[in-house]
Design brief:
Order of helices and strands: EEEHHHEHEHHEHHEHEEHEHHHEEHEEEH
Low-confidence stretches: none
Number of strands: 15
Protein name: Adenosylmethionine-8-amino-7-oxononanoate aminotransferase
Shape: globular
Number of helices: 15
Organism: Limimaricola pyoseonensis
Strand order of the largest sheet: 4-10-9-8-7-5-6
Number of domains: 2
CATH superfamily of the largest domain: Type I PLP-dependent aspartate aminotransferase-like (Major domain)
GO molecular function: pyridoxal phosphate binding; transaminase activity
Distance between the termini: 38 Å
Bound molecules: 4'-deoxy-4'-aminopyridoxal-5'-phosphate
Mean pLDDT: 96
Radius of gyration: 21 Å
Family: Belongs to the class-III pyridoxal-phosphate-dependent aminotransferase family.
Keywords: Aminotransferase, Pyridoxal phosphate, Transferase
CATH architecture of the largest domain: 3-Layer(aba) Sandwich
CATH class of the largest domain: Alpha Beta
Helix content: 25-40%
Length: 444
């Protein structure tokens, strides 16, 4: 009898006992291709010897020092590396233990920036529907996933949500990409006007939407417009790259492909590749300067922030990615993955959309391709696909997202950056089989 409260009380998960490269093994000797990196975490695969060696070295010299007393070489080196590789204007990094913590810290940095500048009335956070920013209360409030938020709503800070940029679901028939991008971004302008620009703190968005919608990339110049709107109204732009960042889409940061830089950016998952829990907020020099020139103290902090073991792991993960030129593999294998998905599933009667960037690809299942009608949520198709995929020895990340009250079923693929062509072919073959087996379970 398990003494842990797992994600579900209905069953105990399989016991994972070992992992190497792109596979995880359970206690019954079955192995699974990790085609989703857990939740887009394991970017380097499992058991990488260079990361393990770095962890051993760090543990031998210093496992922990509280940041109220010390900084450490590992944390300083990681901070320097993150800033050196960051988008323009980013001057500093703040190290935390995961994605939700990073989002919380980013929201508080945004707020403190304005209080330091004498604009304490700026309090409204705007985000998008069909988004996920974490499960702590501030991050949950920012996110637009109603299924996750509903029962906690009385505890959430007030936030405002606009439509996501989601071409498959929201671009009108005959509407050009440019017109759609302008319309979707225009929602931000309208919301800022409604709230009064002088009261708005920040706009938060994932450049490529992950956990709620299955790798939804933006359209056209959507983010350039968003950047302009934020600048025009003095609103801070927070990009949440916890899932889509750190190389996952083929560039180190997803926003590079949009040609914009944020005021604050959150990264996590791929930063430490799962070897240690770690996340970071990258903050622009102007935010740092406002705090440094004001109270000189960011009113925040966690016991495990800047943890040297986590920093050492992340540093090693990022060094291997750069040394082995793995972002090139993300681009090449990402293109191959997309091509294979299109070949094998593109004409499937229940596959409505295949989308994504790099090794971050989503497949949306629909009951009817012509009308894009989703499956009845009670059928839990995404959960059936996950179970069938596990039966095929494949881990893929399933979701039943929220589309303006409707639910949709998606599968997210986010394999490690070390995948080969053969791995990709095997992943797609197993996924296609799992989808058909899951569909065969549905009442006709
Ligand atoms: N932001 C985004 C975009 C995410 O995808 C996630 C996790 N799925 C989070 C924040 C929260 O990260 P964590 O689970 O590490 O707290």
């Amino acid at each position: 009898m398990t003494r842990l409260l797992h994600r579900t009380t209905r069953s105990t998960p399989r016991l994972a006992v070992a992992a190497r490269g792109i596979t995880i093994e359970d206690s019954e000797g079955r192995s699974y291709i990790d085609a989703c990196g857990g939740a887009a975490v394991s970017c380097l695969g499992h058991g990488h010897p260079d990361v393990l060696a770095a962890l051993h070295r760090q543990a031998d010299s210093l496992a922990y020092a509280h940041t109220g007393f010390f900084t450490t070489e590992a944390a300083e080196a990681l901070g320097a590396r993150l800033v050196a590789d960051a988008p323009e204007g980013i001057g500093h990094a703040y190290l935390v233990s995961g994605g939700s913590e990073a989002v919380e810290a980013a929201l508080k940095l945004a707020r403190q920036y304005f209080t330091e500048r004498g604009e304490p009335q700026r309090r409204h956070v705007i985000a998008r529907r069909q988004s996920y920013h974490g499960n702590t209360l501030g991050a949950l409030a920012a996110g637009g996933n109603e299924w996750r938020r509903a029962q906690f709503r009385p505890l959430l800070i007030e936030t405002h949500h606009i439509a996501p940029c989601f071409a498959y679901r929201e671009q009108h028939e005959g509407e050009s990409a440019a017109d759609y991008a302008a319309r979707a971004a225009g929602e931000l302008e309208a919301k800022i006007a409604e709230l009064g620009a002088e009261n708005v703190l920040a706009f938060v968005a994932e450049p490529v939407v992950g956990a709620t919608a299955g790798a939804v990339p933006p359209v056209g110049d959507y983010f350039k417009r968003i950047r302009e709107i934020c600048d025009r109204h003095g609103v801070l732009l927070i990009l949440d790259e916890v899932m889509c960042g750190m190389g996952r889409t083929g560039t180190l940061h997803a926003c590079e492909q949009e040609g914009i830089a944020p005021d604050l950016m959150t990264v996590a998952k791929g930063l430490g590749g799962g070897y240690q829990p770690i996340g970071a907020v990258l903050l622009s020099q102007k935010i740092y300067d406002a705090i440094a020139g004001g109270s000189g103290f960011f009113q925040h902090g966690h016991t495990y922030m800047g943890h040297p073991m986590a920093a050492a792991a992340a540093l090693a993960v990022q060094e291997v990615i750069a040394r082995d030129n793995l972002l090139e593999n993300v681009r090449e294998m990402g293109a191959h993955l997309r091509a294979r998905l299109e070949e094998v599933l593109g004409d499937h009667p229940k596959v409505g959309d295949i989308r994504g960037r790099g090794l971050f690809q989503g497949i949306e299942l629909v009951a009817d391709r012509a009308t894009k009608a989703p499956f009845d949520p009670d059928l839990k198709l995404h959960a059936r696909i996950k179970a069938q995929a596990m039966g095929q020895g494949l881990m893929c990340y399933p979701m039943g997202g929220t589309i303006d009250g409707q639910r949709g079923d998606h599968v997210l693929l986010a394999p490690p950056f070390i995948v080969t062509r053969d791995d990709v072919d095997e992943i797609v073959a197993r996924l296609a089989k799992a989808i058909d087996l899951a569909l065969a379970e549905l009442p006709s």
